[in-house]
């Protein structure tokens, strides 16, 4: 008899294969699998949800929006947790399309069902984009109320920074420093806060403490601190140490590429990018591919830069900085 685990040797369903591809960020295959599952009438709502997530992962947010709306239309009234989940994904897709008013409305609908911190953050971000500063501050205040999670404060700062409101965002960083550091991870996060406040000596001190207690991610930010402090040799030393750590090799190669660029060693920088891409680290791939374009520009090889830009935009169509850069390349 077969239960949830399925029969030994049985073929996985299209939905199961789609879920596996989604987890591995193989978005094109995942969409195809989920579409097959829908045709088979298998996990229809969850398949539309998966399609939406896959489109979001590729930066195609208009199609993601359509998928999430379709999923919501098929969701039963009793499936409250699923509805809440879909509303949040929908709000995120709306935000990334610049539909800030609709995003805020969707978040408000979500918040009627569940007071979710992420929804307050997203709605606050939408309000900030609409220049509704008091509403944004009210939502962000709810996010950090009683929070000892440094990421809450850093995420809010980054939104203000993206709106060129660094000073307003810095007040949240100052609040983050009131959290008493108790662990190596806390010192690492404290160092990141000081880094964004451009207090590099304090950042170095906190990050070194985290590194001394073997909190490995501190190496990456130590490299960034030394780069900003115009100490390229110290930065390169940190990035080389990243190469000795599993999970940080791509970060290390990306940092070394940047250090090489600063020293105008563009051939060396390109070599580091190529090595970094071989690590197949999805979290660092975008930065590596973008830096590859910049290196070709620095070498005045605009033909290669254009080719790489077209490949990049196919993967990350929502990258506004890259889109602006592409306009420049088209004039070369």
Could you write a compact summary of the structure shown?
This protein is mainly α and 332 residues long. It contains 19 helices and no strands.
Give your account of this protein's structure.
This protein starts with 13 loop residues before the first helix and ends with a helix. Helix 3 (about 45-55) runs antiparallel to helix 4, helix 16 runs antiparallel to helix 17 (about 280-300) and helix 18 (about 300-315) packs antiparallel against helix 19. The chain is built from 19 helices and no strands. With about 325 residues, the chain is mostly helical. It is globular, with a radius of gyration of 22 Å. The protein is about 75% helix and about 0% strand. The model is unreliable at about 1-10 (pLDDT under 50).
Key traits:
332 residues; mainly alpha
Report the portion of residues in β strands. Answer: under 5%
Radius of gyration using CA atoms only: 22 Å
Order of helix and strand elements from N to C terminus = HHHHHHHHHHHHHHHHHHH
* Category from helices, strands and their pairing: mainly alpha
Assign an overall shape.
globular
Percent helix range: over 70%
InterPro entries: TPR-like_helical_dom_sf (IPR011990), TPR_rpt (IPR019734), Ycf3 (IPR050498)
TPR repeats: 117-150
Keywords: Repeat, TPR repeat
Describe the secondary-structure layout.
Elements: H1 14-23, H2 27-40, H3 44-57, H4 61-74, H5 80-96, H6 100-113, H7 117-129, H8 133-144, H9 150-162, H10 166-176, H11 184-196, H12 200-212, H13 218-228, H14 232-242, H15 249-262, H16 266-278, H17 282-298, H18 302-315, H19 320-330
